[in-house]
Amino acid sequence: MADLKSNDIPLSVFDNVMQQFDEAAQRLNLDQGMIEFLKQPRRALIVKLPIRRDNGQLEVFTGYRVQHSINRGPAKGGVRYHPQVSLDEVMALAAWMTWKCAIVGIPFGGGKGGIKCDPTTMSPHELEHLTRRYTAEIMDIIGPEKDVPAPDVNTNPQVMAWMMDTFSMHARQTTTAVVTGKPIDIGGSLGRVEATGRGVMFSAREAARVKGILFEGATVAIQGFGNVGSMAAKLMYEQGCKIIAVSDVYGAIYCPDGINIHALMEHVANTRRVPGFPHCKELTHDELLSLECDILVPAALENVITSDNADSIKAKIIAEGANGPVTPNADRILDKNGVFVVPDILCNAGGVTVSYFEWVQDRMGYFWEEDDVNQRLERIMVKAFNDVYQMSQEHGATMRIAAFMLAIKRVLDVTLMRGVYS
Predict the structure, then answer these.
(1) Sheet architecture: strand order including 147-151
(2) 210 and 117 inside one domain
(3) Euclidean distance between CA atoms 398 and 406, whole angstroms
(4) N or C: which end of the chain has fewer CB within 10 A?
(5) How far apart are the C-alpha atoms of 296 and 316, rounded to whole Å?
(6) Which pLDDT tens digits describe the chain residue by residue (422 residues)?
(7) Where in the sequence is the domain holding 332, given as residue range(s)?
(8) How far lies 415's CA from each of 37, 71, 303, 410, 419, in Å?
(9) Helix/strand/coil for 145
(10) Phi, psi of 391 (to 5 degrees)
(11) Same domain, yes or no, for 258 and 156?
């Protein structure tokens, strides 16, 4: 076990993705030159963003936009506002988007963007100016046929509306398809808010099926109660799962008889925190992760399951709602212990899938009913799960390595058909 616990962190987020890529690429016996061509981002843009704060002070922020691949179509990926945003993180997230889009079979490559800032200290007026300046600086490389941004950490439909409007003003025409995740009234799609959590629910349901676990009545612990975690909890609860534990940044709650998620969501809307919900025992975050349950959904931060705590995981299935919640060495421990992991690039791909639906609807000027969106999403997520599971069975690989193998193969096939321009 000692060798599995060595050198776990400090892998950078980008190195983590590259390690996963390399292991899958080796199994596909790819040429080394092609490996380097597929794994490295094609473009990384760093921009300086001066804005005048409400107090009159000029402050300069740093923004990023990375396009990892456009082999299968325009780059696609969110924009996050956070004090910890870095080029390394954005490159990693852009790469994940390439593989995520390939797994669900949508015609996008991978992109990601971000601004290093603390949006909690900024007024709406300042955020609007920052967003518009960022959009103006990157607009030469974005567009419906080039690169399509979306919301991410600390960004929302309003930020997307500002981005769309700024792009449209420069283009001298309304261009709704330049971003996704917009408000419904300006070209957003029904079902987008719930899409990532719904995809997690579909992935967990399919994992339960192949593991012989009855989904109705399955016990579930959910780490993180933001958009993804809360929607996954709500939808799994409505499917008859027993949600026994939930956490947020303030702490965790546990109720072995099951938590009424509708009531918890009302409690969180009123108090802004999960702890304090009646008739539940309070736990630490580590205690939640090690609970005995059928399904564990890490839906918050990266690197929460490491070689230090992987042996304590008692869940039969891990459905990764967050990006990168399990480190590479922890992955090996979980596999050795028989834990079935549905990897992030499959499990949380519901969001980008419905973003694709929004892009399609914008471009044809015809919008679907929410039931249509949800049914299309279910078909795509179930097919993607089955494709990855079949690859894992054929190659004796974990679901994560199988997902990367499938994604790499799909990007490689398109690359070879197009040829390498040199």
Answers:
(1) 43-52, 58-69, 109-116, 75-82, 147-151
(2) no
(3) 12
(4) C
(5) 8
(6) 445 555 555 567 787 788 888 889 889 988 889 998 998 999 999 999 999 999 999 999 999 999 999 999 999 999 999 999 999 999 999 999 999 999 999 999 999 999 999 999 999 999 999 999 999 999 999 999 999 999 998 999 999 999 999 999 999 999 999 999 999 999 999 999 999 999 999 999 999 999 999 999 999 999 999 999 999 999 999 999 999 999 999 999 999 999 999 999 999 999 999 999 999 999 999 999 999 999 999 998 888 999 999 999 999 999 999 988 998 899 999 999 999 999 999 999 999 999 999 999 999 999 999 999 999 999 999 999 999 999 999 999 999 999 999 999 999 999 999 998 88
(7) 1-38+193-349+397-422
(8) 10, 6, 32, 9, 6
(9) coil
(10) -60, -40
(11) no
- For residue 390, being part of any structural domain is answered with no
Give the count of domains, the chain. Answer: 2
Alpha carbon distance 399, 355 (integer Å)? 24
Closest of 19, 20, 28, 17 to residue 394, by C-alpha: 28
Instruction: Give the separation between CA 270 and CA 253, rounded to whole angstroms.
Output: 17
Same domain, 252 and 153: no
Q: Are 263 and 246 in contact (CB under 8 A)?
A: no
Q: Which of 112, 182, 242, 316 is catalytic?
A: 112
CB atoms closer than 10 angstroms to residue 10:
7
Torsion, CA 193, CA 196, CA 199, CA 204, rounded to 10: -120
DSSP state of 183: -
> Which among 149, 152, 159, 157 is positioned nearest to 124, based on CA atoms?
159
Q: Which amino acid is at 85?
A: V
Domain boundary among 186, 205, 240: 186
299 and 203 within one domain = yes
Count of residues for the chain? 422
For 70, the 3-state DSSP assignment is coil
Contact criterion met (CB below 8 Å) for 297 and 348: no
Q: How far apart are CA 402 and CA 164, in angstroms?
A: 37
Q: Is the dihedral of CA 210, 213, 214, 218 positive or negative?
A: negative
Question: Are 298 and 305 in contact, with CB atoms under 8 Å apart?
Answer: yes
Which amino acid belongs to residue 130?
L
* Residue 329 near residue 8, CB atoms below 8 Å: yes
211 is catalytic: no
